[in-house]
């Protein structure tokens, strides 16, 4: 786990999507989305982990680093203010 104020070198990272147990879409909030996770939102969330961010909990479901993903939700494609502040505290 990264420590604020201490340099943390990232050498490489891999992110894998579990397509056996979960369905993904790039159409997010379109009318054709049903029981699928937005692939770009999940990618942004996982990139947050690559950069050392953890999950945020209850009351912060509007943030990219919220503990849970929601079907057909594209809000996590971009970082919220709390996500940006979290990154700034690390770097």
How would you summarize the topology of this molecule?
Blueprint: E1 24-25, E2 37-38, H1 39-50, H2 81-90
Parallel strand pairs: 1-2
Polypeptide structure, described:
This protein has one domain. Helix content is 24%, strand content 4%. The chain contains two helices and two strands; from the N terminus they run ββαα. It has helices spanning 39-50, 81-90; strands spanning 24-25, 37-38. A two-stranded parallel sheet has the order 1-2. It is globular.
Structural class: mainly alpha
Note the overall shape: globular
| Terminus-to-terminus distance | 13 Å
| Global mean pLDDT | 87
Brief sketch in words of this structure:
By secondary structure, the chain is mostly helical. It has one domain.
Features:
single chain, 91 residues, mainly alpha, two-stranded parallel sheet, 24% helix, globular
């Amino acid at each position: 786990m990264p420590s604020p104020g201490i340099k943390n070198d990232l050498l490489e990272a891999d992110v894998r999507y579990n397509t056996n147990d979960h369905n993904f879409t790039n159409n997010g909030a379109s009318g054709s989305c049903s029981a699928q996770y937005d692939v770009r939102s999940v990618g942004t969330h996982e990139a947050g982990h690559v950069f050392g961010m953890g999950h945020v909990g209850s009351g912060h479901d509007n943030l990219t680093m919220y503990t849970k993903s929601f079907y057909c939700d594209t809000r996590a494609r971009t970082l919220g203010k709390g996500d940006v502040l979290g990154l700034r505290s690390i770097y």
